[in-house]
UniProtKB/TrEMBL annotation:
Protein name in the entry: histidine kinase
UniProt EC number: 2.7.13.3
Gene3D superfamilies noted in UniProt: 1.20.5.1930, Histidine kinase-like ATPase, C-terminal domain (3.30.565.10)
Pfam families according to UniProt: HisKA_3 (PF07730)
Regions crossing the membrane: 12-29, 35-51, 56-74, 80-97, 104-121, 127-144
Amino acid sequence: MHLSVRSLRPWDVLLPAGLATIGVAELVALRPSGWAAAAALEVVAALILVWRRAAGLLTATLAALVLLQMPWIGPQLDEAAAPILFCAVCGYTLGRWVRSYRGLWGVAVIAAAFAVDYLLVDERVHGVGDVIFLGTLILPPYVFGRVTRRLADQAEELRDAQEAVRRAAVHAERQRVARELHDVVAHSISAMVVQTDAARELLASDPLRARSVLAGVSDTGRRALSDTGRLLHLLRDPDDELGLGPVPGLAQVPALVEAFRAEGLDVDLNLPTELPALPAGTDVSAYRVVQEGLTNALRYAADHRASVSVTTLRDRLDIRTSNAAGTTDPESVGAGLGLLGLAERVHLLGGTLEHGTRGGRFELDVRLPVGP
């Protein structure tokens, strides 16, 4: 139970206020015996119901008991209709805001209080009809509240499950990026060792060539340092083993496109004739962008056609994939985990990713920086 003004929502106050307004207006219009005291009871019951979300069992039961004091001080059960609305809200509260079936205890207490009023205060002749009326007054709102609570619990469980799946997808993508960058950094360090040994051998015989080789060592070291900085931002399983397969890059995109063509996807590829020297992390990520775009096109393209455009600028690399959206596109089918992981990869490299359906075509636009 958590009772505080900060925890209140607008509807928590507006509904009881509306009930109190209706009840008081009805009593003022009818002016039965003891109507002023009865109006005060309705206001008190409304104030209690303000906290129905925080303490459903207590507030719903107490509010109903307060209202059922009305026949003892003035208006009888058949003289005012507003208390019926109060009882409906109390029944719904016992089903919606009380865990398990403990709300039935509140239903039983309210029913008992009604029975006492019928037997000791109400002078009318009672029969089976009064029992049915009492049941329809409390039980349907209670059942509706239980159904609403169950649906809300299921929706919350579904959101938690989706968030867990998304977190797992991000973690898996980080693991894969870590493996690939690890391979790249290992290759760069190995190259630096070989180049340094070669430069040492050339120092005596060919100093100019040795200087050129050392310049290459410096460039390789700077690239490795940049990739290592990205690697340090990732969480890596310490038991993961080094992959021995080559790390793909833009140079392997034509072979990737041919593989998709063999699977029935007609691909229009626009790739620069001369590929620039890219940082290793950017190179492999560019390949993954094209791979993800073509994978989505193979699954969802209505006409089994796709286009890939790679543009190299001075300080960035632009990649765009496009395909006909059809009736099922990546935004409306599936969990979108591939795009989620891709966005994580691009963000890690300091780039931007946008995707969406425009003019009947699903487009994936990625910009990757190529500077330090």
